[in-house]
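DM from R.C. (forwarded with permission)

"hey, sorry to bug you on a friday — could you get me a structure for this? deadline for the figure draft is monday and I only need the backbone to look sensible"
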Amino acid sequence: QVQLVESGGGLVPAWGSLRLSCSASGRTFSNHAMGWFRQSPGKEREFVAAINRSGGSTDYADSVKGRFTISRDNAKNMVYLRMNSLKPEDTAVYYCGARAVRLQTTTRDYDYWGQGTQVTVSS
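My reply, with the result:
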């Protein structure tokens, strides 16, 4: 069982930056692939970024590629999402996800979710 808690959301002007953090409980964090999803009002939850167990492989949605960077610190049980050049369409609740995996691959399917953190980008 992994418990996830997101933080770092807030209100930011267009073209601004934010860094989201996800704190994970448990001693097996390094066995989990991690990722970020987001959900806007009236829309389905959508994939944003993923990172493998070691942090050496990442995957991004086309809409954020080149602007967002996912990273992790296994010693601290933390995952981060650095968001640059934010646009109003990035406004959403951002969720951290985790899935125990045996291989060093990224995934877009997760078993555990945090409660989310709101990101609002003003135009």
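R.C.: lifesaver. The chain has no helices and eleven strands.
me: no worries. The mean pLDDT is 96.
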